[in-house]
Design goal:
The chain has one helix and four strands; from the N terminus they run H-E-E-E-E. With 78 residues, the chain is of the alpha+beta class. The chain has a two-stranded parallel sheet. Strands 2-3 form a two-stranded antiparallel ribbon. The protein starts with 10 loop residues before the first helix and ends in an 11-residue tail after the last strand.
């Protein structure tokens, strides 16, 4: 999970940085023989105070859009 903190005035710079982070994540996964399904990839925008614009990101040829809720799943081995 990537966590970033920024002001609204730096929104475009943050978008570029997040796309670079996604690229590095994809590169790491490829090197470790893991696959990412970008069509199932979403992001949750958590902010305090004023609302941010809905941003979308490009990732492996897909557009990643925000969601309003998230579920955390924890698997335990038997």
């Amino acid at each position: 999970m990537t966590r970033r903190s920024f002001s609204v005035s730096k929104l475009e710079k943050v978008k570029v940085q997040l796309e670079q982070d996604l690229h590095l994540t994809a590169k790491w996964c490829l090197q470790n023989k893991l696959l990412i399904n970008p069509s199932k990839t979403k992001y949750l925008n958590v902010c305090m105070g004023q609302m941010l614009h809905d941003m979308s990101f490009s990732f492996l040829g897909e557009i990643i859009k925000p969601v309003s809720t998230a579920t955390i799943r924890i698997w335990k081995s038997l």
